[in-house]
Amino acid sequence: MDATGASADLDPEEFRRLGHAVVDWIADHRAGLEALPVRADVEPGWVRERLPAALPEDPAPLDALLSVVDDVVVPASTHWQHPRFFAYFPANASLHSLLGDMLSGGLGAQGMLWSTSPAATEVEQVLLDGLATALGLDPGFTFAGGGGGSIQDSASSAALVALLAALHRAEPGWRERGVTGTERVYVTAETHSSLAKAARVAGLGARALRTVEPVPGSRAMSPQALAAAVAEDVAAGLVPVLVCPTVGTTGTGAVDPVRAIAEVARPHGVWVHVDAAWAGVAALAPEFRHLLDGVELVDSFCTDAHKWMLTAFDASLLWVREADALPAALSITPEYLRNAASESGAVVDYRDWQVPLGRRFRAFKLWTVLHGVGLSGLRAHIRGHVALAAGLAERVRADPAFELAAEPSLALVCLRVVTGAGPDADDDASRELLERVNASGEAFLTHTVVGGRYVIRVAIGAVTTGPEHVDQLWEQLRAEAERVRQRYAA
Amino acid sequence: MDATGASADLDPEEFRRLGHAVVDWIADHRAGLEALPVRADVEPGWVRERLPAALPEDPAPLDALLSVVDDVVVPASTHWQHPRFFAYFPANASLHSLLGDMLSGGLGAQGMLWSTSPAATEVEQVLLDGLATALGLDPGFTFAGGGGGSIQDSASSAALVALLAALHRAEPGWRERGVTGTERVYVTAETHSSLAKAARVAGLGARALRTVEPVPGSRAMSPQALAAAVAEDVAAGLVPVLVCPTVGTTGTGAVDPVRAIAEVARPHGVWVHVDAAWAGVAALAPEFRHLLDGVELVDSFCTDAHKWMLTAFDASLLWVREADALPAALSITPEYLRNAASESGAVVDYRDWQVPLGRRFRAFKLWTVLHGVGLSGLRAHIRGHVALAAGLAERVRADPAFELAAEPSLALVCLRVVTGAGPDADDDASRELLERVNASGEAFLTHTVVGGRYVIRVAIGAVTTGPEHVDQLWEQLRAEAERVRQRYAA
Fold first, then answer.
1. Is the predicted ipTM greater than 0.95, yes or no?
2. Residue positions of the PTM N6-(pyridoxal phosphate)lysine (chains A, B) (predicted)?
């Protein structure tokens, strides 16, 4: 409020007018997105040079800010919502989800405790229970079945809290004495770097990570190698704490055998955390559910609604089989957070499922997606992109200028240019092709390295990506390949 | 996309129509908020019983969802944006900030790397540099001065990453070997529980926390006691890692002496992290800057824009004096995240300043606040609430039915009912008064315990709280006190 007692904020009628203007900006931006370059083409410092260093002393009209957005922010943005964004994994910020995010902001609730917003907590519980069913997860992952789900900010944070719950389970003294240095965490060379980060954050250090060998000829974790590693560590007096099978690795979409891994891990009490950040949502379609075979045996399962399930970041879905596992590891209750509902034991306080205390009503954006698209629409979204990937893979297979660097996995296609001049030349040609495509602004791709070789990743899955966009990409890949092959084959 | 290749999402024109409807819903909700009960008055399970357990198979119109929001979500929400919300600390979700959050969603950028959205990164850098100046922080906290700021999701996460940077600095082997069990972290009994949580998450365990005694007769950390504790620990072969002075504790708004603490800590290489989550933003007004005296000597400083600075959660501002401190502790770079800009060293990759990999364009909501309100408006917002708290404290002092349980701190007033029948009766009467006020729905308060005694906290600071709302609260407090005093004094 100011000296007259008036609020510093917009009054609701001003917000109505400006809010409509912002909605119009968003509608226009999305409608015109396809005409923009996908990748920002600016040098470091370009934005900073164009903004005043000092903050404004006095209020200014929104129009002035929207002009800066048009002139500075948009050109300096890599457009993740562009239909020819094929880089990393998709980050679906659907317009459906934006409606929910707006409502969440309008309500302005803090969902740290049940009592600070019963609706934020219970809507999340209902949606996560419903999604567990829709994904074909075991009922043990629902609140009704003794487990439960929560929305984390990211799969990285989900992996971290799963690791903390695993440490608490493995070592009863962990909350008091911390880690001992004997803990071990099992991954593969393809596991997401967030697992290494979680181990570092949790005080285990890199030495706690044990990289399990793959099944020969694949990139999937070998259950036999895992069994040997665990046995060796147990014999050495170490404490196997957690194994992380991945369903859909970031590099190539490889799938670790969840069932066989869980069967090795369980007799030793090792926590099994499935990282299905990208691929897990595909299980909405029954024909892809085999990827999660054995998930009923694991302790925690994570998939991101904010990658390929139309929900704007952040909305990583984490289910655990024991509803008390995360609170047991993470809860600390000072006086100012005590309340009757929490002490009754009849409610979930989601602050105890995460590192931060505060939390937004994130379930709202998930809700508007589920309500506005329906499970049938989500399945169509997934199936459509998988079909596009299959079509692209067919073209790659049939074209001597390319090879598949891995079998296509759902909507991810990994390919290389074939020059005929050997793998080193293919590496260079592939790198050059990717750089040329990205510099064109027509599409945006990223790369990985598989078996020491440079690989172009085509991750199909942006909200508005349709057949024409993959066709356009393929035409560009072919044209650029022709150019670079001439150079490298020479 | 569906089988016809059409997107699963709204088309932009549908979004324009529905987005306007959602903006209207928000405007109406905020305009009508004052007439709603502040606290949700529902039993556990009330929301779950009213929502279908199964997710919808087919899409449904937004209107149907908005009806459920009106009928189920709003009654089951504790209204943090209500002008008579005086509980916890405020969680300002101003309408200005909602505009920015909408734009962030519209752009749908992932700001994990500079290259994945140069604008998201550089706008954040510019705003954090500008805010450092506006708060009167030392230039060493700006990127221009070798340090830098970032937006974290919460002060809890800020404390965690500060601790990780401190561990890395204190123990060069930390990233490889993890923690050793000899680390010590210095807090007081009033320090926020997020520090204990950070120590637990980081693998240190509760034993690593050393609770430093207060200056006699106060709740502020004693620098002498800190010096003695550090000396004792060093002599015992332990490793003092971090001390956390608080500027504005959660319980009573107490302020630890930052300068004297930093002077004790620095010679031992102990990282000083200032937790000014609630109170720090007051330094926008020069007359409150004395609270931060000595902050130029510390390693990291955190204050929340999402509490009392009009910016919707999540927007916790963390500055560090060494721009490389967090990346050095947290960076891990797999092949699929490698890119030319990062390798040039000319850019900031904010993923290395936090635990999660992904991040929203959170600076957008901070930007619309700063642009739409200006620093002058923010100062007026802070000053107005501090003045209201001073007025309330005067009334408490002058009324024999009450006493101040602590000196007022900025906009936080801590009070107790005085029954005349001794402190136990005062405890009971105060508890009953708080419960009666909260049950009325007219206002919402929370409590703490000071020196073993029950204390009612009145935290003034909601976006629309003005003099009339504090007047209404005071009238209610007086009326309820009269009632409970009769019972307890009897």
1. yes
2. 307
